[in-house]
Amino acid sequence: MKCFKCGSVLSANDTCDRCGADVSVYKKTARLSSCYYNRGLEKAQVRDLTGAIQDLKISLMINKYNIQARNLLGLIYCEMGDVVDALSQWVISKNFAKNDNVADSYIRQVQANQTKFEAVTNSIKKYNISLQYAKEGNTDMAIIQLKKITAANPHFVRAYQLLALLYIKDEEYQRAKRLLNAVLRIDHSNTIAQRYLTAIGEEINLKNSDVTNSFLPKKKEKEVSSTPLNGNDVILPRTSYKEPSNGAITIVNVLLGVVIGAALVWFLIIPARYEGLTADYNRQIADYSEQLSSGNVELNDLTRQLEQVNTEKEALKTQLEQVNSTEGSNKYLIAVIESAGAYIANDSVTAAEKLLDIDVSALPSDTAKTLYNTIASAAMPVAANSFYSAGMQDYYKSAFDTAAKNFSKAYKCNSNNVNAAYYAAKCYVALTQTDNAKKYYQYIVDDFPTSSYYREASDYVASH
Amino acid sequence: MIDFDTELQKFQPCLEIEDTEDTIYSNNDVPDITELINMIIGAKE
Question: B5 vs chain A: nearest CA distance in angstroms?
Answer without folding.
Answer: 8
